[in-house]
């Protein structure tokens, strides 16, 4: 029936013998001692009925009693006690010879076979997987117990055949399966399909149906496969998708809110900064000037944080738009330097700008976003450096049509263990509340996202105590 060539029994394991009608062995052949643990002598001296399982004894004796006039064959299965007390399932075939009043026996140890059957049945029950076989030569269909269970029918009142098996499926699946079946001889394909069936009690179940084609010498010999109840799995998946969609919606609402509120705060914030600046231009005494300076600095810092939060929200909501215009690299870099002139002076740090001749003077892209990244890196470089110098470099990359920018400092550096996390949102090397340096941990993650959205990449190299190099690469022309 199948083309599986592995034999169920090895002929060398075949047990044989000659018995009296009282189940006493007269001669034995084959590895009885290996199977049962008793020596051949012990087995020849002990009548077998003493080691047959008590529950099987009746059937064994009935089986060997000759009710017929003529010699004939008989088969019986029973459990035989081994020397160690365990039982083996033995399948006996007798030839009862009326003339000699002897029983000629061949037997097989089917213990493992029974165990395999038991395990296959239980595994199918546990996993809710049934299997089936269709013999192509006689169109007989075999279902395992779990297949009957899944289709909601009982073997006593339902016999699957090539017509009635289709009645469980919905019209679309029925059509598909019938087509597959009729194309079988020509080009029988394997099938993996989720189908909906209706049990006789009206209940609908989702099954994953697999169909495999069994061939013998190239010809279709049968079909076999499995049916698996996937209703629970589908329901879990549906809930996961729903939960994911709800979470995404919640994040979008949160990002939109963040974007709106940051925008709303920015307008009054700009007024405060403007007013503080105007106030600084009026005639103030020493104490008043100190107050107005604090006001200017604090409101400037607040605006920077606000801008970061706004960018973050826009990045999350995918709302950030990028320009693609021509601009001059020298202007951008010198513009950044101009912005930090006072901070450099305050910390007594030198700034070196090195734009290589290989770098194009004009490139295409979003100058304000590139400037934002450079400002951020430069601000960090100044913040984390107490002495030495800061260098901004720009040069043509090794790879074609890419330009590289570097911001190098001689500051505190970054511990090797922190480097892999540096571009993560909110990450700070020192995040304790008592830390020396202020900040939100947003700057670098925003830089990374902006650069990647502009088609580039950013990386960092650093040695603790010696300084850091932030390097990013961008296409010279965005499109
Ligand atoms: P923050 O607002 O905390 O500066 P960033 O995202 O810009 O946030 O930086 C994250 C962390 O990376 C900083 O808190 C700091 O620990 C480290 N870092 C960034 N730039 C430098 C630098 N140039 N030198 C040393 N550490 C740095």
Largest beta-sheet characterization: 5 strands, antiparallel
The spatial strand order of the largest sheet comes to 2-1-5-4-3
Please tally the helical runs, counting DSSP H or I stretches of 4 or more residues. 13
Distance between the termini: 65 Å
Beta-strand proportion: 25-35%
Bound molecules: adenosine-5'-diphosphate
Number of strands: 17
Mean pLDDT level:
89
Helical amount: 25-40%
From the spread of the alpha carbons, the general shape counts as elongated
Helix and strand composition category: alpha+beta
Kindly provide the radius of gyration, computed on alpha-carbon positions and rounded to a whole number of angstroms.
42 Å
Query: Which consecutive residue ranges, at least 5 long each, have pLDDT under 50?
Result: none
Order of helices and strands: EEHHHEEEHEEHHHEEEHHEHHEEHEEHEE
Structure characterization notes:
This protein is of the alpha+beta class and 479 residues long. It is built from 13 helices and 17 strands. Bound molecules: adenosine-5'-diphosphate (ADP). Adenosine-5'-diphosphate binds next to α12 and α13.
Compact overview of the structure:
The protein is an alpha+beta fold and 479 residues long. The chain has helices spanning 32-36, 40-45, 54-64, 111-127, 145-151, 171-182, 184-187, 231-281, 286-316, 329-339, 341-347, 367-383, 443-453, and strands at 15-20, 25-29, 72-81, 87-97, 102-109, 129-135, 141-143, 191-198, 204-216, 219-229, 325-328, 350-355, 362-365, 389-396, 402-409, 457-463, 467-475.
